[in-house]
Write a structure and sequence with these properties.
The chain has 276 residues and is an alpha/beta fold. The chain has two domains: 152 residues, Nucleotidyltransferase, domain 5 (2-Layer Sandwich), CATH 3.30.420; 120 residues, Nucleotidyltransferase, domain 5. Helices cover 33% and strands 22% of the residues. It contains seven helices and twelve strands. The protein has a five-stranded mixed beta sheet with strand order 3-2-1-4-5, sandwiched between helices. 41% of the residues are buried.
Length: 276
Amino acid sequence: MRRRTAHPVSGDPLVNAASSRVLLIDLGNTRIKWAWLPGDGKEPESAGAVRTGDGLSGLSFLDGEEAIAGAVACNVAGIELGRKLAGLVRERLSVELVFVQAQASACGVTAAYANPLNLGADRWAALIGAHALGPADYCIVDAGSTVTLDLLLADGRHLGGYIAPGREMSLAAMAKGTAGLALRLRDHAGRSGDLAPGTDSAEAMEKGTLAAQLGMIRSGMERLASEGGGSPALLLTGGGADALLATGELPEARLTPDLVLRGLAALALELRVGPE
């Protein structure tokens, strides 16, 4: 197999996936998730996830004995961790790990950014994953360490998006320098429920953070409805998606935890990741 450099440019013929599986890796700030694209090029098969904070331990795909056609990844967890992972994949699986990055267009999606390289690789993969679900106007919300919202028309045009602090980032900023409040916030961690006004400061901050995220989502949905066909679909992914759903304020939302991996699968097919 010919060695390849990371971050291929658009059109670089990278699947001969008919011969073997392709490994898909979503290297995020909070979790590392992976799946397999089968040789028939159909739906990616979910495989596992570990916490990014645990380093690169627990990555069971590195112990696989079956030969694979190639590996493609999305990395927002930092260059150093990406390099370490690429080295392990090369050593254990004998393939080069291809890191995707946003391009002007790919897989039927056109980026709104004047400089596509400024669009996060995870957002780009999520846009492509959404478009691969079928033609519709999509409001894509990834609720992680930050909350990103991207608007995608049915014809594949990306309208741009919004980025706001995630739950932990917002609460940490408000609690900074107030030890007692920080402790109370930890007690509230993971609680879900409606958006009734909080009856203590920690609860009010928790619910206020959720309310701000919901407001951004409603605004995005309204804008997309006016720009598109009038009935946009709302896709939620990321570790904070369950908390948003638990409010009961987003009955139309569809939980899509594998959206980035779906996008990586589509990119792997278009870039022909595999042996030559």
